[in-house]
Amino acid sequence: MAGLRVPNSASGQGLGGHRRSWAELLAGRLKRQKYNPERAQKLKDSAVRLLRSHQDLTALLLEVEGPPCKKLSLSKLIDCDSSEACANHSSSFIGSALQDQASRLGVPVGVLSAGMVASSVGQVCTAAAETSHPVLLTVEQRKKLSSLLEFAQYLLAHSMFSRLSFCQELWKIQNSLLLEVVWHLHVQGIVSLEELLESHPDMRAVGAWLFRNLCCLCEQIEASCQHADVARAMLSDFVQMFVLRGFQKNSDLRRTVEPEKMPQVAVDVLQRMLIFALDALAAGVQEESSTHKTVRCWFGVFSGHMLGGVISTASPKRFFSHTLTQILTHSPLLKASDAVQMQREWSFARTHPLLTALYRRLFVMLSPEELVGHLQEVLETQEVHWQRVLSFVSALVVCFPEAQQLLEDWVARLMAQAFESCQLDSMVTAFLVVRQAALEGPSAFQSYADWFKASFGSTRGYHGCSKKALVFLFTFLSDLVPFESPRYLQVHILHPPLVPSKYRSLLTDYISLAKTRLADLKVSIESMGLYEDLSSAGDITEPHSQALQDVEKAVMVFEHTGKIPVTVMEASIFRRPYYVSHFLPALLTPRVLPKVPDSRVAFIESLKRADKIPPSLYSTYCQACSAAEEKPEDAALGVRAEPSSAEEPLEQLTAALGELRASMTDPSQSDVISAQVAVISERLRAALGHNEDDSSAEISKIQLSINAPRLEPREYTAVDLLLTSFCQNLMAASSVAPPERQGPWATLFMRTMCGRVLPAVLTRLCQLLHHQGPSLSAPHVLGLAALAVHLGESRSALPEVDVGPPAPDAGLPVPALFDSLLTCRTRDSLLFCLKFCTAAISYSLCKFSSQSRDILRSCLSPGLIKKFQFLVFRLFSEARQPLSQEDAASLSWRPLYLPSADWQRAALSLWTHRTFRELLKEEDVHLTYQDWLHLELEIKPEADALSNTERQDFHQWAIYEHFLPKSSASGGCDGDLEAACTILVNALMDFHQSSRSYDHSENSDLVFGGRTGNEDIISRLQEMVADLELQQDPSVPLGHTPSQGHFLFGIFGRRLQALTSGWNVAASLQRQRELLMYKRILLRLPSSVLCGSSFQAEQPITARCKQFFHLVNSEMRNFCSHGGALTQDITAHFFRGLLNACLRSRDPSLMVDFILAKCQTKCPLILTSALLWWPSLEPVLLCQWRRHCQSPLPRELQKLQEGRQFASDFLSPDAASPAPNPAWLSAAALHFAIQQVREENVRKQLTKLDCEREELLVFLFFFSLMGLLSSHLTSNSATDPSKALDVCAAVLECLEKRKISWLALFQLTESDLRLGRLLLRVAPDQHTRLLPFTFYSLLSYFHDDAAIREEAFLHVAVDMYLRLVQLFVAGDTSTVSPPASRSLELQGQAGQPCGIDNKSSSFSAAVNTSVPEKELLTHSRGNVKTPTLGHVGDVTNHSCLGHVPARLAMRRHCFCQSPFPVV
């Protein structure tokens, strides 16, 4: 204004007519006067009054604008760059001018100001429309609008602005109005979006205008323009307003707005946007096109951050439900028949990513129950778009594990309704839903074949209620035939519905129709593979290619189960053309056979043994393999995948895993993880060549070899990629959030490892944890520990695992498998186990911190928690101190995933964590004394993390300070030292009976007691038993009244009673191993355990002696003795204990005599053992006796001396002294001495027997018979069988010469006080059972008239023969078979008695004439049927020995030609 002149102004006339401007006048006054605020304000008010009185508003505004203008304008006011304008034009000035103008025009000031502001807004929008952003303002115009809005806010504040008029004026410039201007008006409170929209007269027009602008806005957002943040804020506010107003029950709009219009506009705009997006996807929108960007941006409004302002209300859920309905029902063009044909193309992985992203965002707001219920309601009430319905089903089962059961229940209801009232719609829906869900694989839903078999394959099927139901089913299936995929037809044919025989024609008609359709499609039902893939979208695989896949799958199932797969067995019977023409040729592809048979070789051999391979085909295969070995270059011709074809799926799998890892650290990508996991699952199947439906039903148990786990190269690579990716993902996710806020990615990822790939995963985990554990890095340990937790989370859905030693024989749940894989033997394995347990428990406590304790216990096996307690106690002495409440620490996952993880600190932090301490109160997870012993026995002392001193200190603390005083309810011993010893002994026994105590090496046999860690534990047992001994009165046996004996024998008795009884090899070996361990324990303990601390005159035979005698008579006699004597160690231990106890009595000599005299009747094996080992036993006993007594040895010990001396004299060339009493002791001593003499001297020395007493000869004959049996039974026997036979023959000859009866030795019973009770307590039961063998071994040495002279001879001979036959029939012939090295020699001996000589002829004649047939039958064993033995050996008679005629049964050749005796 400085350069403008104001005409006709009175003040403009100066002296001489010179006119000066306002600027000159004002400048002059400013120079002459100082600035005064009061004068300035006074001057301003005066100027306003002057202008109001004398100026025209229009002229004033025209003067303000500069050039003449006929309309109101505020351009200078909103021109932010003109500081002069801002200074000279205040809001109050313009407001006053507007009021004056309104009063002159006679219109409300609000209407006038609204029109003026609207006109100025139009100018701003017009200027902005010239730019490239049709919905957004430029920076320049945004500043101008800001100034204009400040003026409008002033007008509003002073009630000088009409919102309604302003809205109407804005709609007049609708074509140039920009969406950002509307948003600014709404945000700054000038006029709300609701008022603006409600003021428009045409609802459809305003809806279309908003739709166009929102599309442009979405496109601008995706174009990453410089104003993207403003655009996103605009979109968020608009969407929130539309959702809030369009989907609330009661509108709460202002009085000036009609409440019925706004919800209509909001719903209309949201629906237009959704329909636009769905139509674009249906039309096949191109990637990164403008339409694609618009759709992608609009689908993003369904995320939580876009609806943050209204997410707490009920409106978003109604909006999402409405959106889901629109998705499922918009443009229902496809029929159900189209869906049957095309649904394979609508799986989750094949659905457009934008649509699956929309589904996942809807799933955030709606629960699975609500989603399934809504789907059911829509299908029942409206026409639907089948493609989107079925793709929604796929997304549902992929993203929600619980959706499987919900869909199964819904389908079951649909099927029940369909068959109840023949509802075709329900039937169609059920089949389509099941088939669609099955396309997503076994981890999401059961296969269609399994569902079809379960629904119609039994009498409980839906179709079994009536003929009407059957007709309905087959009519429906027949109607489907023209549209069916060949694979579904194959399922229906191979697994047909179960139909009663009278309605069989319905089934046969359908099968004929289906086969005709398959023939039209050129698909043969006979060429269908064993493991078809109903979820693949490709064409039917060629029979040869499918057979290769079937073979690979069958070998894998066989490897993990050890059995021929059921599918293969069924195919060999019911699908023989495919089995013979395709499967077997693919299986029997010639190749160079490996030196160590692999799974394929074992599978082929199993099929051959089961007669499932034709001999000619197998022979051809063997010849071809032999030829391949001769020409190794031809081995490459075997059917194997090219490297490129195998590498491509692995590369795709690697890429998919990389995409998932990139999403771990980006919170905005959390909604795409489930889709990425689904892609990984599909890529994994391709990488492993798994194209079949879920066959987990065949793998009810997984076979896993812990000691030698093995994987195929392809499995190895794929599983390693999975495990490495899981570990990397966990580290990446942990860098952003703790486990409890990482979402479900780990659970989803773990499910990809379940199903068919689970055996390979567990095998690789076995290799890593059991064999390579100490070499794993911290990220690997953390990742594998977290994986173990999530596998435990799904334990109910996983099969059990059968593992070899050292784990138990029974199947293990997967969480318990990790307990078996983690060993605690060496320093490295101890530290690794500590790391793994710490990581697993810490992760589970963090991951499930807000859930119940049962969840924690299900994820981790009790054994893992117990091992952690064991390791913390063992490795950290500070953990052995009691914890106080102040010691409770907080648990943080963050330090564990750092590269410099401090495992000791982490373990101690977990140890003191409050939740973990509460968890340890559970009965099944706290470490008990028995658990501690089992783990401690595993330790190898030479490789222990503790030194010998530290280990001893730890044992002392654990036993005496920790477990001994603890209550039994807490796993302790209640302070009872004897109870502690009992648990320790049982633990020792269990450890040595288990396979854990064996060393497993490739080229060595199992070595008993291979672990030496038990040495320290046995030392603790010795200390504890010694303490118990000192606690008791010497006159009272240990811990109890005299009648109860020692607790150790009670333990032995209970354990032996629990073992399997019988004479089979397994039971005998197990019992023998148990007894050998008993003996080892007894030898390590004080000898007083066997006899007691002292003997008293009133009760000389202590309870301990009785217990030991019982153990010897019942068990050790059979398993720990050889040739009628115990081993030297236990014999010497008993006699040392006997002398120790007797020397404490008042009359030691008398007490020794009394005890040993009792041994003659109670336990004679003790005395025969002393005789055998007397040369080494005598010096020890003599020294021990003379140390305390100067008198000679007690009389009973002298008898042992005399017996041994008699035997020595008897075999010397000099005259022998008479045998001392008792005769059986002298006979035993003589028998042991004879065994030491060379064979050529035996006959000569035995001639002296003619002078010995009859009783001595009988006992010597019995001991000789036992020696003969021992020479055959014991491979390392010092006595040769031929020598033993000669000794028996010499003694028998002497007996017969002196006419001494000896047949009673073959009829011994316990009731025979003279011979039976004594000899049966000396000889093992196995030897007495084999007495028939010795009888017929000596047959040729019997005297001619033995049958005549001895009335009982024939009865004994027949009885021995029957027993011999029973032995043979019972399968015990191995016990009498001679060693291989002696077979030739024994063959020569066996032939000799069969020769015909005068002696044998006379014997045969005597037998034939001496006994009448009636008397023989009287002495026989009745009418017992015995199998015919004519096919064995050289026996040619086929008589039944239950009723043998006398003349035939006793013929000599029946004895001599029998295969049983080896003579």
Task: Describe the secondary-structure layout.
Elements: H1 22-32, H2 37-54, H3 57-65, H4 83-88, H5 91-105, H6 109-129, H7 139-157, H8 163-172, H9 179-187, H10 193-198, H11 203-222, H12 228-246, H13 261-282, H14 290-299, H15 315-329, H16 336-342, H17 353-365, H18 368-381, H19 386-399, H20 403-421, H21 424-438, H22 448-456, H23 467-480, H24 486-494, H25 504-520, H26 543-561, H27 566-574, H28 576-587, H29 599-609, H30 615-630, H31 643-664, H32 673-688, E1 701-704, H33 713-734, H34 745-752, H35 758-771, H36 778-793, E2 800-803, H37 814-821, H38 827-847, H39 853-859, H40 862-875, H41 903-911, H42 914-919, H43 929-936, H44 948-963, H45 977-993, H46 1014-1031, H47 1047-1058, H48 1065-1084, H49 1088-1091, H50 1103-1119, H51 1128-1143, H52 1148-1162, H53 1164-1172, H54 1174-1188, H55 1195-1210, H56 1223-1234, H57 1239-1245, H58 1254-1273, H59 1281-1297, H60 1316-1320, H61 1325-1329, H62 1331-1337, H63 1346-1349, H64 1353-1369, H65 1383-1391, H66 1398-1410, H67 1413-1419, H68 1446-1449, H69 1452-1456
Parallel strand pairs: 1-2
Strand element count? 2
Strand content: under 5%
Based on helices, strands and strand pairing, what is the structural class? mainly alpha
Q: Could you list the spans in which at least 5 consecutive residues all have pLDDT below 50?
A: 1-17, 52-73, 80-88, 251-258, 534-539, 632-646, 692-698, 998-1012, 1037-1042, 1371-1463
Q: What do the pLDDT scores average to? A: 77
* Percentage of residues in helical conformation: 55-70%
Taken from the alpha-carbon principal axes, the silhouette is elongated
